[in-house]
Amino acid sequence: MSRGIFGKLPRRSGGKTAGAQINSSVFIFVVLILVSSVLLLLSTRDFIFGVKNVGLSFFSGIRGGIHEINSFVSRTVLSISELATLRQEHANLLRQLDRFQEMERSNAEIYQENIRLKEQLDFSKTIRYRHIPAQISGRDPDNLFSAIVVNKGSFSGVSNNMAVVAWQDGTQALVGKVIQTGIYECLVMPVFDMNSQVSSRISVSRYEGIIEGQGHWETPLLLRFVPRRARDDINIGDVIISSGMGGIFPENINIGRVSSINILEYETTLEIEVIPMIDFSRLEYVFIIEAENIEPEIVFYEYSGYDYD
User: Fold this and answer.
1) 10 Å Cβ neighbour count for 152?
2) Rounded distance, CA 118 to CA 115, Å?
3) pTM of the model
């Protein structure tokens, strides 16, 4: 028993060893074939170029991607910089446009100012009175809607009770009179002041009366003490002028136009509303009348040898 057993064991062991050797040989053979095939494949030109092309394509793709990313970043940064530059240029252009518009407005104002000054100059040449040109510089803060401050005073020859006229819309008209004089400014009481009274005359019918103010430039003046019998001789639109009575206001200076005629019961006179010819809301320049330029006539007689009795 034991021999048979011991005798079979070696044979079994030898069979297994031989099979393992055969399997190892087959494995090695297959590996060698694969290695040879791989080496043969790697040694061919097409494979080498293929690998090179694959590598070139791969790295070209990476390089192209990097280039695109770099270009995108550069364009983005450049766009941001250009946007900031454009915003600055836009702000500069807006400021320049504002300056140009301001210059245009200034030029238009200067042009209109020159026209007004030329009109005042032309009028100044036609006034037959010695006069002092002046400009409205403000309103009396204690009497905002009446007294007018003018930028000429005693230094320029202004004194109290001088008449003040203006040229507006092609018409000469009465503004008021000087009531207070400083060195470089004076205070003018306009005709619409409640304390103002001007001896007046209706230019067509020649009836006379007194012009009184009602305290505000938008309120009509009142012509009082015109006889009731003058009603049929007075028409809407008739011009009211100064009569020259009293010695303060020269005669024949326009004051306003008749806007309505009121017949008061139990009164012997008419009450006539008059719209001033001066628009005091846009009054800028005035002329303070010093005195009427009336020069005496000088007659020269040529001696002819005869005696005149």
Assistant:
1) 21
2) 5
3) 0.59
